[in-house]
Every structure is written in structure tokens, then in C-alpha cells.
Amino acid sequence: MTDFFEAYKSQLTNSTLVVLAVIVLYFLTNILHKWLLNKEKKLFPTAPLRPINMIKQILNSLWLVLGIIAIIFIFVDSTKSETLISTFKLVAYLGVVAVVTISTASIVNMWFNYKIQEKIDHNYDPTSFKFFRYVAVFIICFVGFLFGLLAFPSLKGVAQTALSGAGILALIAGVSAQEALSNLVGGLFIISFKPFKLGDTVKITDSMVGTVTDITLRHTVIRNYENKMIVIPNAVMNKEKLINYDLGEAKSCERIEIGISYDSDIDLAKKIMQEECEKHPLLIDNRSFMDKKQNKPIVKTALIQFNDSSMTIRAWTWARNYSEGFSLKCDVLESIKKRFDKEGIEIPFPYRTIIIKDFKDKTKNNTTFEE
């Protein structure tokens, strides 16, 4: 054993120094990690902690791998030293690129989050900042990935071409026929022309109504009134005909339609619908100055259609926004139905006549049922 230590004294000494260096770097990384966590919690309380934790894991793994390579380098002969040196440089380069990429993306992401919160606090529209945050983080991660490819000789030419201006143009031209670029361009159009923004209530179809919660590089996210998230590609959103209830005036006109039987009193039905609508607390007076001067009613009612078994009466009501208009409509439909029942106004259902023919005995009369 003494002979072994004497023979490998310098190697063991260097290995011990490497182990101590790895331990010191490990503890310094943990100290730096705790300091960054405390700073982030103070400056950006809502920022995610995952990037900082990821940097810590990458650095600790990097120190361990570099330490193992250094120890192996100490004990191997000189013929394999060049391979170990190149491996050491490759691992160190990839680790530095990963740490720089994640750190830069995290800093940019936190800056955008700060600006978004600042816009919200001052009642400004944060849609543009929220969208370009995704663009900036994507570009940083993409460039970091390309720099990582530069470390591999077989992929170096691809990375250099992609990083050059011509390479980027070629990449865009290659993806131009793909759906990904269509969605990206669609998102840019939405941000530029602002048919809707974050927080707007939009209606795509009768079953697709909700609030815009996010606009990413690929899709628009809408939270409907069932608290479900609807994800629609930006290219589709640009083609769809949608209703934005918050674009321009927020006031919403809700049309309340009810069918009554032909035997019912039309004037009484119109009066009941008008009274029930006008006494609802969410109704607003949308009459013009001339309408008020001419003493026109707040709620206009009219017979608009003759159906097979009913007549349709419509009432035009106004609310401050779409949500209040929807609540008003639900409440008023219930109260009108109760008033109709008390006043004898019938809401009919379809009548159907069924004739049963007896082909065996043609002398018998046909039987008729009505429902």
C-alpha cells in the first residue's frame, strides 16, 4: 500500500484537489442559488422559480462531470489525453451555453412580466408585451440551441448557415408553407391590428363565447363561461368572423323573444314584457334625447313574426356589457313566464294531427288523433 501511494502520490494529490474544487463549486452554486431565489422573490414575487432551479441542476451536473473527466485525465496515459481534453472542452462549452441561454431567457421573461404588470396597474393594454415575450424567449432559446450545435463538427455547418442572414431567410422560406408560420403571422396580425385584446369578451360561434386570456405564437386562448380553456390557432382566428363585445362601446343590446298563441292578447303580452324588462336592475336607459322628449318607452317591444303555431314578440333591452346583458335575459325570461301564467298568456307548443287509415275495412271511418 505504501508503494502504491508513493507511486501515485502526485496523481492522488491532484485528484484530491479536483474533488475539493468540485465540492467548493457545488457549495458556491447552492449559495448563489439561494441568493438568486431571495432576490427573485423580492423583485418578482410571481415569477416562476423553475429556471433558477434548472440553472442550479445544470451547474452541479457540470461540476460533477468535469471533475470526473479531470480525475480520469490524471490517471490515463498521454495517448488518450487529447480525447479527454476535447471531451472536457465540449462539456464545458455546452454547460456554459445552456446556463447563458436559460439565464438570458429568464431575465428577458421577468422583464416582460414586469412591464406587463406595470401596464395592468396603469390600466393599459398588455397584449403586445405578452405576445412579444413569447417571441423574445423563443428566439433566445433557438439561438442558444444553434450555438450548442456549433460544438459538434458534423452539425457545425448547419448551425453556421442558420445563424447567418441567408440561413434565416432560407429557414423562413422553408417553413412558409407550414401551419406554424401561418399561426405566427396570424398572431402578429392580431397584435398589430387589434381585433381583440386580452380581457375582451368575444363570440366565435353560439357555443364559443368567452374571455381572451392569452395570445401566444401559435394560438389564442379563450376562457368560456364554463371555466374551460378553448385553444384556437391564430390562423383560424384571423379567418373567423367574430363578435368582440368590448370593441368600441361595451354596451350590449339583448333581444328577448317569446312566442305566444294566436288566441292571446298581443297588447297585454307586449305590456308584460316591457314592464318585466324595465324593472330589472341591470337594464340601462339607452334612449336618445329626442326619444326621452317624445316619451318613448325604455324597452321597445314589437310583434316581429308569425309562426306555424305562435306569434313572436321581441323586446329590445340594453345592459352595460355582454355579461350583464346575459344575466338580464335569463332573469327576465323567467319573470315573463311567471307573469304570462298569471295573466293567461299562452306560450304554445306545436300541434300535430295524426290520421290512421284502416285499409282492411274501407267502409269504416278513418280515426284522427290530435296532440
Mean pLDDT: 81
SSE order, as H and E? HHHHHHHHEEEEHEEHHEEHEE
| Biggest sheet: strand arrangement | 4-3-2-1-5
Q: Into how many domains do the coordinates divide? A: 3
* Biggest sheet statistics: 5 strands, antiparallel
Provide the gyration radius in Å.
Answer: 36 Å
- Find the structural class using helix and strand composition: alpha+beta
Write the layout of secondary structure elements.
Elements: H1 2-7, H2 9-43, H3 50-75, H4 81-121, H5 127-149, H6 153-163, H7 165-175, H8 179-193, E1 201-205, E2 208-215, E3 219-224, E4 229-233, H9 234-239, E5 243-244, E6 252-260, H10 266-278, H11 289-293, E7 300-306, E8 311-319, H12 322-343, E9 353-356, E10 367-370
Antiparallel strand pairs: 1-2, 1-5, 2-3, 3-4, 6-8, 7-8, 9-10
Write structural notes for this entry.
The protein is α+β, with helices and mostly antiparallel strands. It folds into three domains: 166 residues; 51 residues, Roll (SH3 type barrels), CATH 2.30.30.60; 92 residues, Alpha-Beta Plaits, CATH 3.30.70.100. Strand 2 and strand 3 form a beta hairpin. It is elongated and about 115 Å long. It starts with a helix and ends with a strand. The model has no long low-confidence stretch (mean pLDDT 81).
